[in-house]
Design a protein that fits this description.
four-stranded mixed sheet, 19% strand, 313 residues, extended, Zincin-like, 3 domains, alpha/beta
């Protein structure tokens, strides 16, 4: 590399460019002797910008936001309420952050409390955002070929006018496809290809509820003798926040949406409610009763908390 070429390389690295005919004039070498190589040019890159500084802050906004605060790489617009309470309360829901504070607490003190809990608030907002994203992705598009979970397996809906109601294909061919590792259980729904999404949903939901009653009754009959209890009545529930309940008179209520889960999870909820017929509490003796038939209670509870059910509406 000639001295001029080295200078050009240095200028280019500094954001400059030397072109022939510009800057210092060039001259042909005066002798045929090789030009000695110039010393190597060492370029030092500027220090890298921290990743956190390079990223734009994430923005979270409550639909009824009244105030906004920067919590360090997260700008949070939150709902603010003055209430009768002794301390500052913070709730992160699917809508966003809601802050409740006594009337005598100043805004500066409220914001100081928010900054103190910034890491917790950011984590919960991200968690809720991710949950909402998964819920949106789990919404069922009611049409031929749609999929939904049933007893922990993936079932494909097939609109088949020849079927009566809804019929699950559980024959040898379907089992072979399942063994191959590809979910191919099919539910043949007795509707034409032109059926409206609401029609498909109603037929499938009615089928799921019938299956739920059948499975729940079988599991209650299995676990009740093991637990030494008797159940008298089983009812299906559509509760949004409870999987089941039990009454002292032997009545059991189970959420029909449990039919989406695999049997081990259903068994845990069934055993949980039946155990209440012996212990109407959640004390140590109650959990001993549950674990007598469901040893891995924590795994089942984790599944109920973490897995999202499909959106059926």
């Amino acid at each position: 590399m000639t001295r001029q070429a080295a200078r050009a390389a240095l200028h280019a690295a500094a954001g400059q460019l030397d072109l022939p005919g510009f800057g210092e004039p060039t001259a042909p070498p005066t002798s045929a002797e090789p030009t000695p190589a110039p010393p190597p040019v060492i370029l030092v890159a500027p220090p890298a910008m921290p990743l956190a500084d390079a990223l734009a802050p994430t923005r979270f906004r409550h639909p009824r936001a009244e105030r906004e605060i920067d919590l360090g790489h997260a700008v949070v617009a939150y709902e603010f309420k003055r209430v009768r309470r002794r301390s500052i309360g913070m709730v992160v829901s699917a809508e966003g952050l809601t802050v409740r504070a006594p009337r005598w607490v100043g805004v500066g003190e409220v914001e100081a409390a928010l900054r103190e809990k910034a890491a917790w608030i950011r984590a919960k907002l991200v968690e809720q955002h991710e949950r909402a994203r998964k819920q949106a992705a789990s919404r069922i598009d009611w049409r031929d070929g749609a999929t939904l979970p049933f007893l922990g397996e993936t079932v494909i809906l097939v609109l088949d006018p020849r079927a009566t109601g809804a019929v699950l294909d559980s024959g040898a061919e379907a089992m072979q496809r399942q063994i191959s590792g590809v979910p191919r259980l099919t539910l043949h729904v007795g509707l034409p290809q032109t059926a409206a999404p609401e029609q498909i949903r109603d037929v499938v939901q009615a089928w799921l509820q019938r299956q739920a009653r059948r499975v729940f009754e079988e599991r209650c009959a299995l676990f009740a003798p093991r637990l030494g209890v008797q159940w008298r009545r089983l009812a299906l529930s559509s509760a949004q926040t409870r999987w089941g309940s039990a009454s002292a008179d032997g009545s059991i209520r189970l959420n029909w949406r449990l039919i989406h889960f695999a049997l081990p999870t259903i068994d845990y909820v069934v055993a949980h409610e039946l155990a209440h017929l012996r212990e109407m509490n959640h004390g140590p003796r109650f959990w001993d009763v549950v674990r007598s038939v469901i040893p891995d209670v924590d795994a089942a509870r984790g599944t109920l908390r973490q897995e999202l059910l499909p959106q059926l509406d």
